[in-house]
Known about the structure:
Layout (H helix, E strand, L loop, with lengths): L19 E3 L2 E3 L1 H13 L22 H10 L31 H4 L3 H20 L8 H12 L3 H5 L12 E7 L2 H19 L3 H4 L3 H27 L3 E3 L2 E6 L11 H24 L4 H13 L10 H22 L6 H35 L7 H19 L4 H5 L3 H10 L1 H10 L6 H9 L1 H11 L3 H11 L1
Parallel strand pairs: 3-5
Antiparallel strand pairs: 1-2, 4-5
Helix pairs in contact: 4-7, 4-11, 4-12, 7-9, 9-10, 9-11, 9-13, 9-14, 10-13, 11-12, 13-14, 16-17
Amino acid sequence: MSSPENAILICRVCDDSNGQPHYGTICCPSCKGFFRRVYMSEKKFECYRGNMCVIQKGTRNICRACRYKKCLQVGMNVKDIRGKYTSPSTDCEVSSSAESTPKSSKDTEMGVAEAMEMAQVYMNLEKYCENNYCESNMCREEENQLIDRMLGSNVLDLIQKTSPQCPRFKREWKPLEILNFENFCRSWSRSIVHFLDFATRFPVFNQLSPTDKRAWFISRLAPCSFLTMAYQTRVEMCEGLLFGCSNVYPLKSDRWISVEDEHLRSLFSSITETMFSFVIYPMMNLKVTDLHYSLLKACVFFSTGIVVTSVSDKGMEIMRNEYTKHKNALMKLLMNGVETFSEQTDILFQVQDVQNALERVSAHFDQEIQYFHLLGLPIVKKNLLVECHINKLDTKLHFLYRNRSTSQTTRKPSIFYDFVFNHGVDQFVNNSLYEVSNHKNDLLKKITLNISVLRDLTLILFVDLTVEIHKLIVGL
Length: 476
């Protein structure tokens, strides 16, 4: 029989088996040191999963906010920490992003360890969304009927989970069949519920008003979905864009004829080429890992992109703050170990180009879906697709051009559009600015300040940017 001295004590924080009495409770040396370090540092940590992380031996390093909160819950007392305790008012509090108070730039400066911790959280979230499937005895016809019912619902009902949803069948990322309308509808519907699982796990998203939730969901659905497709394509090293239901659109033009439907060929030929040139190949060049990808997807989710819908000022500010925080974390990881300024700048530009490409592809996708709608194709008569990809454009047109003539809003210069879609708005802007680079510095600064505005207008309407820049120069 073992004596009380030899009894195994379990850490009340992480369930490790080497617990000892520390700070008023039973904890392991790891949690003891963690509790002391956090309190002594006076840092305020934030949980990005709603303060609900499970703290165990194998997961205790994933979220410092929830780990510290559990330390307090099991009775660890800061008064027992020598040399630091002053009063309860100095206790470190754990709060969500929306509840945190503004901090100085020094306080918000993120280290590699914190960036890694944040990335780990999002990698776990991505794995959860990808593995959130259930095996069922439902036949394919029954699944398709449920998909059809979901596509007949609306975004708010989908977010509130009061409408039917696409079955969460396991996604297959092996290229086993060529894209057709049936498997495209199936894979895109699965992408919608994947994005639903992803978005609704963000506390800040759940704190938005219903109107803001709807607008943000519609805006970020396509960019996040295309990024997931691109990364899975990169992982599989596939010579074609993967959609998640064993279906693929070939990259090589001589294989496009294998896609029977001409409308799908028209839609995804240019999208696939752009995705490889400006998203997949750059991710290979950057050596993007699962951690990098998870943070990049969070950045794409929080990015305002080309959103000009009815998101409130409060909602927009919340999401912009989150974007800045997540973009800083991503760059901290990507630039870790990179010393020269030119290399760091190159990484920054490549990441921004990837994000810009996702916005361009999403805008093109929405535009082509609207064209399908005008042709009367049955697949785009579904209410959810109309709301996410067709009425979204109408909202943007009305918002931006309510004071413009009809001829200006419907104009689409094909030569300009081809250049912008294939080479990117940024490159076109840079080419245009090069012509005036010899002018005074204040001229260049004023034009640069308007680039973001021009980019939004261009991505939405493909307006002739040369005319807009000419107006700026003449008006200076």
